[in-house]
Amino acid sequence: MATSEKLIEFECPQEILLGLHLNARQFGDLVKQQSAIALFRESKLTSGMAARWLGIPRIHFLLNAMQQANISLLQDDSEDFARETSLIMRLASHVGESSQ
Predict the structure, then answer these.
(1) If 45 and its partner were Cys, which of 18, 22, 49, 70 is the partner (CB 3.0–4.6 Å)?
(2) 5 domain-assigned
(3) 59 CB-near residues (< 8 Å, 6+ apart)
(4) How many domains does the chain have?
């Protein structure tokens, strides 16, 4: 763990873990992911910040957020459209390079 990171601990009843069929580590990862998505949805975290927190590429975070939380990426303005179009083009370029 990096020195700038903080460890947060919380209690969870065993029956929740059993009911979800998760161990403590898996549950912690689920809570972290759902928290990142919720904070992004509330505009308290950017997609980049959330992705860095989860240790995944930004495009993966955005895709997960869209699939799991039905989050719209665009706010219907030209700036958002341009930014997201650029991101998609970079992803397409990256995927093309990876498949060669």
Answers:
(1) 49
(2) no
(3) 87, 91
(4) 1
